[in-house]
Amino acid sequence: MDRKLWYRIILVLGVIGVCLYFSFPLNKRINLGLDLQGGMHLLLKIDTSKLPEKAKVDACDRAIEIIRNRIDQFGVRETSIQKQGEDEIVVQLPGVTDRERALEVLGKTAMLEFKIVSDDAALLKTAIDGTVPEGYELKRSEENNEAILMHAQSVLSGDAIQNAMVKFDQSSFSEPLVAITMNADGAKKFAQITSDNVGKRLAIILDGKVVSAPSIREPIPSGEAVITGRFDINQARDLALVLRVGALPAPMHIEEERTVGPLLGQDSINNGIKASVIGLVFVFVFMAVYYLFAGLIANIALLLNGVIIVGVLGLLPLLFPGFSATLTLPGIAGIVLSLGMAVDANVLINERIREELASGKSLRQAILLGYDRAFTAIFDSNFTTVIAAFFLLQFGTGPIRGFAITLIIGLAASLFTAIVVTRVIFEILLQYGWIKSLPMLHLIRQPKIDYIGKRKIFYTLSIIATVIGLIAFSMKGSKAYGIDFSGGQLQEFNFKTAPAIDKVRDVLKEIGLGDATIQQFKENPRNVLIRTTLDKSTVLTEKLKEAFPQDDIQVLRIEHVGPVAGKHLKDKAIMATIFSIIGICIYVAFRFKHVEFGVAGVIALLHDVLIALGALAITGRPIDLLSVTAFLTIAGYSINDTIVIYDRVRENMRLNRKLTLRELINLSVNQTLSRTIITTGVTLLTVFAIFLYGGEVLNNFAFTLLVGFFCGAYSTVFIASPLVLAWSKKHSR
Question: Residue 286, SS3?
């Protein structure tokens, strides 16, 4: 056996062995994203506007340490806390679904102050009447709504606290309270304060609210005090926790929140697996039936693709310490999609081998030439998709990054398995004489259509379709966007039986959310999606349970995006799109040495993206982060088909120097038409499986891809190819 072939065999076996080793056990090698296992994703913004300039410098870093301490004592493991920009913190809490408690612990500033209450009844009356004396402030007690006039200057702050713990009122043994212990300096000051103010009341203020105002009966030299209030045991524990680890340096509010319940997480896993299996079965059956033995070899490569993707995800944390191999629901879609797109390379090779056999080459020559001549088109088409995925990785967040990572790994794996693995298998079979022929079905014969001559018809159709879509989009205005970009709150509930929407609407009106949008899914009418402008999830859940007492209502997910975060996400989405298109244009122009190739290709992919955008607007589907992910995937995939034709045009220019550019384009499009139809069709099968079985979270994403991929095949033939002629200086006669 040839030495080079031995080296290739060792390489293939080595890669497969390493990937298998790092693939299992799956639960230890790869973490599930929050959208699969349930949990919370929070984007917290620190309000440093009232801090001194020096304090602003490290305010975010100090807040991160305090948040980390709170989470550690909260009992959550495998958390992720990262600084974003100058004043934002991204927190991920896997497995945490008690939303209200988590937000209370993380969001509470825990600014504790002690202030002396005025015992002057006349001053109190004046303040209640509307004139608060200078140097005083009027507040109402959270305990009993009593009006309390106190000195504005605090006599002691939370910095004096050394420890805080939950105890119970000795008189009732049922009322929880928070006992605090001062540090040495704090105890000394507290002793002095209580000595000087015996008989007066001391207001205990937390985050600007008076939680209690007990009387000072005697000096307290021990440095111990209690905070009473209308606490339940969990509230008391959480208050003790935040007091114990310290106050945040500045107030903090939630810009973005995504909470996924365990029920939806499990459903997402089930749907993802189901869509994956069905999509792969579609692909495997087609390849085996259409390409026969060559199709079986391609299927082996596709199976190895899956092994390599999982293995690399397990290996990455070792290669890049700190990197977490997290599999998200869009990540599963990325794996399925990359396997569907991997068919492209195998189809290109098989179609090339078929052409060489038809021209009279021997089987060995046909296989070798098929791989050599298909390589440039395979590499270029995959690389442009990697460009789009790279910018998704740079500008995306959370699950979107998971999609980009799996797509990039999947495309790299498809290059290896299609070009190296299948070639090694063919060479082994040829070496031992185990293969004498390579029959394949050929249902799509090479046509002789004049695409250039019909270009004006298709230009007109495309312009009309694009304009209609853009008009529909502009008419919807801000309503065209999902909460990712427009801000607001999304809540999904699961009912035991399908609820009446009118009754759900009545509940929303009762709590002032009459303008909310309600969506009930046809495939699962027990699930109800509610979009609101305000965060009233707690009261909404309670009211729904009152209105539907017979149903065990489960909160599947809650997503909240503030207006600032929405604008930030929209800006990042626009930047990702612009940079992707520019990157693809530059690469195509560079590879084909002609600017008109790059410009024509970009116009075609913009056409596909705009058609998909219009389809979302016309069908009333919101444009969200997953939609943008789909747009960039469409851009990368659309240019794939175009590059294959461009590559054939470049080849035919060398082989047929007497043909005009018009004739070369028509010849190249006809030669590659079967490949265009087959690869697009097979990829659409995998996307269709995601659309049908991937669940409602991925439904919008899959719909966008279906429209975009179909348009991609159309624009490649009828838009991109004729545009090269229109932009070229060499016009046909």
Answer: helix
CB burial readout 164-176, b (16+ within 10 A) else e: bebeeeeeeeebb
Nearest one of 624, 627, 477 to 559, comparing CA atoms: 624
- DSSP class of 623: B
Identify the band that residue 731 occupies on the pLDDT scale cut at 50, 70 and 90.
very low
- Confidence at 322, pLDDT banded by 50, 70, 90: low
Burial class (CB in 10 A: 0-12, 13-18, 19+), 729: exposed
The whole-angstrom separation of Cα 199 and Cα 246 is 30
User: For residue range 502-521, what is the model confidence (pLDDT) as tens digits?
Assistant: 999 999 999 988 888 888 88
Q: What CA–CA distances, in Å, run from 301 to 229, 381, 395? A: 66, 18, 32
323: pLDDT confidence band, cut at 50, 70 and 90? low
How many Å separate Cα 604 from the centre of its chain? 27
Instruction: Tell me the pLDDT of the chain averaged across its residues.
Output: 86
What pLDDT was estimated at residue 733? 42
Distance CA 428, CA 296 (A): 15
The dihedral built from the CA positions of residue 652, 658, 661 and 667, taken in this order, carries a sign that is negative
Q: Is 346 exposed, middle or buried, given 0-12, 13-18 or 19+ CB atoms closer than 10 A?
A: buried
Quick: pLDDT tens for 455-508.
899 999 999 999 999 999 999 988 888 888 888 888 999 998 889 999 999 999
Show the CA angle centred on residue 103, arms to residues 97 and 104, nearest 5°: 120
* Degrees to nearest 5, angle at CA 310 with 683 and 34: 90
The pLDDT, as a whole number, for residue 72 is 79
Q: Which residues contact 157 (CB under 8 A, 6 or more apart)?
A: 111, 112, 113, 114
DSSP 553-603: -EEEEEEEE-HHHHHHHHHHHHHHHHHHHHHHHHHHHHHHT-HHHHHHHHH
Nearest alpha carbon to residue 88 among 57, 50, 46: 46
CA 299, CA 280: separation in Å to the nearest integer?
Answer: 10
Peptide linkage before 25 cis (omega within 30 of 0)? yes
* First and final C-alpha spacing in the chain: 54
Q: Can you name the residues that pair with 42 across neighbouring β-strands? A: 91, 257
